[in-house]
Amino acid sequence: MTAYMHYEPLSMIPADGWRAAYIQPAEDGGPGWSSEPLIAWAVYEVTERSEKNDIETGARSMPREIAGAVWGGYMMNPEEISNFWFYMAPGSPDPSPEDVAQQQKVRAADDERRAAARARAAHVVVHLDCTSLYRPGASP
Fold it and tell me: b vs e for 104-132, b when ≥16 Cβ sit within 10 Å of the residue's Cβ?
């Protein structure tokens, strides 16, 4: 079952000059990363839910978390975005091409491991589903 994390901002302070950096896949052909300004630092109430829009049932409170806040049509925690890389302090230099290339390799390896795990899990599910079609003692 998939768990969904919900971040509700409780308190915010300005984050002037701070940015959230995101890594991009090497095959995109661009600089390999992007950033967007933080609108605030926020304290979030974190809730784990069993279904994406489940508000009343199946919710479990997690520890509060301090993270940045960005505007993507609504206020959100950039750490919820799968390609979030790091926070950039005001005046900090852009990441070097070497740092970007290294992070892209790390992300690509992580993606391959996750894909392999999903494939193994899918194989087990298919195997279990197929074996349930046969009566005990009957051969397939």
Answer: beebeeeeeeeeeeeeeeeeeeeeeeeee
| Contact (Cβ atoms closer than 8 angstroms) between residue 20 and residue 87 | yes
What does the pLDDT look like over 30-79, one tens digit per residue? 899 999 998 888 888 877 776 655 555 555 666 666 777 777 766 777 88
Domain range annotation of the chain: 4-131
Per the CB < 8 A criterion, the answer to whether 83 and 28 are in contact is no
Q: What is the pTM of this model?
A: 0.66
Strands (E), 50-135: 60-61, 65-71, 75-76, 84-88
Separate counts of helices (H) and strands (E) for the chain = 1, 8
